[in-house]
Design a protein that fits this description.
The structure holds two protein chains of two kinds.
Chain A lengths: L2 E4 L3 E4 L3 E6 L11 H9 L7 E8 L4 E8 L4 E6 L21
Antiparallel strand pairs in A: 1-2, 3-4, 4-5, 5-6
Chain B lengths: L1 H9 L18 E7 L3 H13 L5 E4 L8 H4 L3 E2 L6 H15 L1 H5 L10 E5 L2 H16 L4 E4 L1 H7 L15 E5 L3 E2 L2 H14 L3 E3 L4 E7 L2 E7 L2 E10 L5 H7 L7 E10 L9 E4 L4 E5 L5 E7 L11 H14 L8 E11 L6 E4 L5 E5 L9 H14 L31
Parallel strand pairs in B: 1-2, 1-11, 2-8, 4-13, 11-18
Antiparallel strand pairs in B: 3-7, 4-6, 5-6, 9-10, 10-11, 12-15, 12-16, 13-14, 14-15, 17-18
Helix pairs in contact in B: 2-8, 2-11, 4-11
């Protein structure tokens, strides 16, 4: 079994984790165009090489980031999200009817 | 008589014919450059040459003909999808498959064995009834079947009510079939090469030159080639190639693993698939049981085989067919699947004017090979998108108009 080092729980079998998609910065949902939002939701870099991506330790629901080589399947490092996210991200929506 | 055969084989009156054009230098210019020499690329070239009179075509293949996902898929042909767009598209492909050996005068070993998808829950029965109705409405043979009919169709299937997920019913798809995947690529490539298309193996496209929103040339490891238009048909590397043309794609690449047992006498006729236990099984005409459909749990550009998948595929296959417990595995392999958000392909126009996409083939590319050849060739020749593939354009994601086939794919994701 392949092992993955969880920043919270230490070295664990990779079957304990759920892959959570590529890390890419979210556009501001209040100002971004529909096209940009579609690209953020659906499109992927899908790079062959070293990528940064979200993972979750399923049993403890702990989300973190990992750098992984998608050609050699090597996990280079894992780290807590606060390395990237220093501030809370607000998700408040516009009032109904103002979403043009 | 073996000696008679040998004499025939060595007789100069019957020289061995090469299937494909021998390797030559690349020309300076081609009307159409097809990136990717798999079944799809060869099928597009074949249709361009035979039906549209466009034979100044080069197929550029970085490795060898049909050596990618054409060689790695499990050769399932079916059309029992859920959406109208999907069913129409795949059923047109099944029809073409049925006549493919005649079309080529080359045996693709088409076998109409039927396909049975198993339901182990009420929810699955409901969705199968839905699929059967959609299918019948569009002229595809699909029907909901009960346990007795399943026993008649597949007498050696484990119908025990004490199993982990007892079988409650199934979706019987009489149009389901299989064919020799290599022969499909070879048949198309031979037919294309006979009509003047050039197949260039070991020729990798390294860069794509775009001027004023149009492709003007591709740079390969064997030199630069100018081109009228370009089609990319590189399942498993779609994102990488499209990126060279500056086109982002909604694709993630996952390995899909499958394996085969040693050959046995014929005992299983239809193709049997279970979305619940995540496995599909069929017996090839040479007797091997193909056990397929294990997608890796995270993206990877690597075709290694893992013990994890071997264990889970074996466990699932044994649940359906306990007699396989003594079977020995011959091979296990993987292919890189281009998974799209809605489990449908991405075909047609791209943001670059004369650059056409044939991508996002996930786990459904082989069955679409013939219709893909017809429709993509029509698009390249006429510059008009055929109605059959209009719904699959890349633009659909920008309009949030996905074509959801997640439930109708056999593989687990």
């Amino acid at each position: 079994m392949k092992l993955l080092p969880c920043p919270l729980n230490g070295l664990r079998n990779i079957s304990e984790f759920t892959y959570g998609g590529e890390y890419h910065p979210m556009p501001d949902h209040r100002t971004s165009s529909t096209r940009d939002w579609a690209e953020y939701v659906f499109f992927h870099n899908n790079a062959a090489g070293i990528v940064t991506e979200w993972w979750c330790h399923t049993a403890s629901s702990f989300w973190f980031l990992a750098e992984r080589n998608t050609i050699t399947d090597e996990i280079i490092r894992t780290f807590k999200a606060d390395e990237i996210y220093q501030h809370r991200v607000e998700f408040e929506a516009l009032a109904p009817g103002n979403d043009s | 008589m073996p000696f008679g055969l040998l004499k025939y084989g060595l007789n100069s009156k019957y020289p061995a014919k090469h299937h494909f054009t021998p390797a030559t230098d690349l020309k300076k210019h081609y009307d159409v450059v097809i990136i990717g020499g798999g079944g799809h690329g060869a099928a597009i070239a074949y249709n361009l040459a035979k039906y549209h009179g466009i034979s100044n075509v080069a197929i550029l293949e970085k490795n060898y003909l049909g050596g990618g996902n054409t060689a790695r898929n499990t050769a399932v042909i079916r059309s029992n999808y859920l959406t109208e767009a999907g069913v129409k598209f795949y059923s047109a492909s099944v029809k073409l498959y049925n006549n493919l050996s005649n079309e080529f005068n080359y045996n693709v070993m088409m076998e109409n064995r039927g396909q049975l998808t198993l339901a182990h829950s009420d929810a699955a029965i409901r969705s199968f009834r839905w699929r059967a109705e959609v299918n019948q409405h569009l002229g595809v043979r699909s029907e909901l079947v009960d346990r007795q009919t399943i026993t008649d169709l597949v007498p050696n299937l484990n119908m025990s009510e004490d199993s982990r997920f007892p079988i409650m019913g199934g979706l019987w798809h009489a149009d389901g079939a299989t064919a020799r995947h290599d022969a499909v690529a070879w048949g198309y490539a031979k037919g294309a090469c006979d009509r003047g298309v050039e197949l260039h193996q070991l020729t990798e496209v390294e860069d794509i030159e775009i001027t004023n929103g149009r492709v003007t040339a591709v740079k390969t490891n064997r030199g630069r080639v100018e081109c009228g238009s370009v089609v990319q048909a590189v399942a498993g590397a779609s994102s990488i190639v499209a990126k060279k043309a500056g086109i982002p794609l909604p694709i993630h690449c996952y390995p899909l693993q499958a394996m085969v047992t040693q050959p046995y006498k014929p005992i299983l006729t239809p193709h049997v698939s279970s979305p619940q236990v995540h496995v599909y099984v069929h017996q090839t005409s040479r007797g091997e049981f193909v056990i397929g459909g294990g997608s890796d749990p995270y993206p990877l550009y690597n075709t290694r085989a893992t013990l994890d998948q071997r264990e889970s595929l074996s466990a699932a296959a044994l649940e359906l067919f306990p007699f396989l417990a003594q079977a020995r595995l011959l091979r296990q392999w993987a292919g890189t699947t281009d998974m799209t958000p809605d489990y449908s392909p991405i075909m047609g126009l791209s943001p670059v004017e004369n650059y056409y996409l044939d991508a996002g083939w996930g786990t459904w590319g082989f069955k679409a090979t013939p219709i893909c050849g017809v429709t993509m060739a029509e698009l390249v020749a006429t510059k008009k998108v055929p109605d059959l593939i209009k719904p699959f354009e890349l633009e659909r994601f920008y309009r949030f108009e996905q074509i959801n086939e997640a439930g109708a794919t056999a593989a687990s994701h």
